[in-house]
Write a structure and sequence with these properties.
- The chain is 31% helix and 26% strand.
- It has 287 residues and is an alpha+beta fold.
- It has a domain of 91 residues: Arc Repressor Mutant, subunit A (Orthogonal Bundle), CATH 1.10.10.10.
- Strand 11 and strand 12 form a beta hairpin.
- The N and C termini lie far apart (50 Å).
- Bound molecules: zinc ion (2 copies).
- The site of one zinc ion has 8 residues, from loops.
């Protein structure tokens, strides 16, 4: 079990360091000219001028507080650390002080269980697509930064969130947290494999708070073997996961764990077998 207090303390210290206007001016100046590994260091005097501080003692004090955590001294001056750029991007992406004006979204898609029109919502940073006519479909819900709505229609935003989720699922399944790069743990919920209203697989980050659950097929939509076999029988793999032809999953062996997923498409049937890591053991198509 994680010790929450020891985990929280460094976090509190890191956030507390930002609680001063001069420090934020210093970071702002450093992040303005950031070009990844090619970032040119800003010399001391130039950084002090950009931060609009005239007293060098005061400037030194605040720069000293940021050093190590958010600012690194290198030959020729100062550069922001990876923590500074990550935090900056998180703030830009989520625009914490700005309300989202799109809470209800138009979805051009139908419920896979009852064919009713689906309803899109955006609340607490989650973009969700649900069926209001039945409770047989699990729905779709994934974190989506507010930035994702800029220059996108409702449909485009939903499509972007779906694509984002698909890529994150692929990364998480491969053993890497899409947010912090730490290792992940895959948990197959054996009781839920055959159900449509519960996630059959849950993947959790071993370090940060990332957790995601889904049907098995959603985790496999970027697997090259799965893509080529589904395309071979004429299935468009780019459509929403819930718009794919009906699929069924069943446990075929417990030790070693093997799950079979069957997808039917107009006379053809694709059969996949995956193991406990969701690695594809075999893919077949029959006509
Ligand atoms: Zn429905
Ligand atoms: Zn993580």
């Amino acid at each position: 079990m994680r010790d929450d207090r020891t985990e929280r303390q460094p976090m509190q210290e890191a956030f507390a360091l930002l609680g001063h206007e001069i420090r934020l001016n210093i970071l702002g100046a450093l992040l303005n000219d950031w070009v990844a590994a090619y970032t040119e260091p800003i010399p001391y005097a130039e950084l002090m001028a950009s931060a609009e501080v005239e007293d060098s003692g005061k400037f030194n004090y605040h720069l000293g507080k940021l050093r190590g955590v958010y600012v690194q001294q290198v030959d020729g001056g100062y550069v922001p650390t990876a923590a500074a750029t990550a935090l900056y991007r998180a703030v830009i992406a989520h625009k914490p002080r700005q309300e989202s004006n799109r809470t209800r979204l138009d979805v051009d898609s139908e419920c896979p269980c009852c064919t009713a029109s689906l309803v899109g919502t955006y609340q607490r940073g989650f973009l969700s697509v649900d069926c209001k006519s039945c409770d047989r479909w699990i729905g779709f819900s994934y974190p989506f930064p507010k930035n994702g709505f800029i220059n996108r229609t409702d449909d485009e935003a939903i499509s972007a969130a779906h694509k984002r989720c698909k890529h994150h699922l692929e990364l998480a399944r491969s053993g890497q947290c899409p947010f912090c790069a730490a290792t992940t743990t895959i948990e197959v919920q054996e009781d839920a494999i055959t159900e449509d209203d519960e996630p059959a697989v849950v993947v959790e980050c071993d370090s940060c708070s990332f957790i995601v659950g889904s049907r098995i097929l959603f985790f496999l939509l970027l697997d090259s073997q799965v893509i080529s076999m589904l395309s071979y029988v004429g299935i468009d793999v780019k459509q929403y996961e819930w718009e794919l032809p009906e699929s069924t999953a069943c446990l075929i062996s417990q030790d070693p764990l093997r799950i079979r997923v069957e997808i039917e498409a107009e006379g053809d049937e694709v059969t996949l077998v995956v193991d406990e890591s969701l690695d594809v053991c075999s893919v077949d198509a029959s006509c």
